[in-house]
Amino acid sequence: MKILVSWSSGKDSAWTLHVLREQGVGTPAALLTSVNETFGRVAMHAVRTGVLEAQAEAAGLPLLTIPLPWPCPNDIYEDRLRAAVGAAVTQGFTHVAFGDLFLRDVRRYREERLAATGLTPIFPLWDRPTDKLAREMIRGGLRARLTCVDPRVLPSSFAGRAFDDDLLRDLPSAIDPCGERGEFHTCVTDGPMFSHPVPVTSGEIVERDGFVFADLLTC
Fold first, then answer.
1. How far apart are CA 204 and CA 156, in angstroms?
2. Closest CA to 58 of 192, 164, 163
3. How many CB atoms lie within 10 A of CB 182?
């Protein structure tokens, strides 16, 4: 198994890489990330490409990107995804690993789009209880910050906070501890999937397009 890791820059994809390596499941050989080419940031997480590249270097893996326009119609997204999948298969990749946890419609979408492409989707974290998983990540040395918050369900003050025990304690009871429903997104700066920490400093916090974003800058 030559595995492409779907990499969002956040904790779930980072922990997926760690679990694959820990369990000896195939060979994770590259990271794949969708990037907003207009702003030079990871789609949705809004992490700068400089931080993304530093993560890939710390993970010891090449970074493959899918450049997306803004706004991005779904047909363009799917065209560019197909091209990236085709290129990966040509390079000998057999599987792609996702950090999805329990959203069955998202999993079904991925499986349908990858059917008969030659790239088999795998979900190493699937159906793990997210409260236990969140604490497993923290105990395992993962360090991350919240870079995007949906203020419709979570106070804006959570943007920029560390993903730690204090955060889990303070989350409203209706919020998934891993933010699986899109309540928040993260950027990983350290953990067992990295050979060294990714040094970052906090930038400005802004509200845009209905979300609150906390910027991170490479040191």
1. 13
2. 192
3. 14
Terminal C-alpha separation, the chain: 36
Task: Supply the DSSP symbol for 7.
Answer: -
Taking the whole predicted model, whether its pTM rises above 0.90 is answered as: yes
Instruction: Give domain 2-218's CATH number out of 3.30.420.480, 3.40.50.620, 3.40.50.1000, 3.30.530.20.
Output: 3.40.50.620
In the numeric block, which tokens belong to residue 140? Answer: 């395992």
Q: What is the mean pLDDT of each run of 10 residues along the chain (219 residues)?
A: 97 98 94 93 92 98 94 89 94 98 96 94 98 98 98 97 98 97 98 98 95 95
Q: Which two tokens stand for residue 84?
A: 């990236």
186, 193 contact by CB (below 8 A): no
Task: Report yes or no: 141 and 195 within 8 Å, Cβ to Cβ.
Answer: no
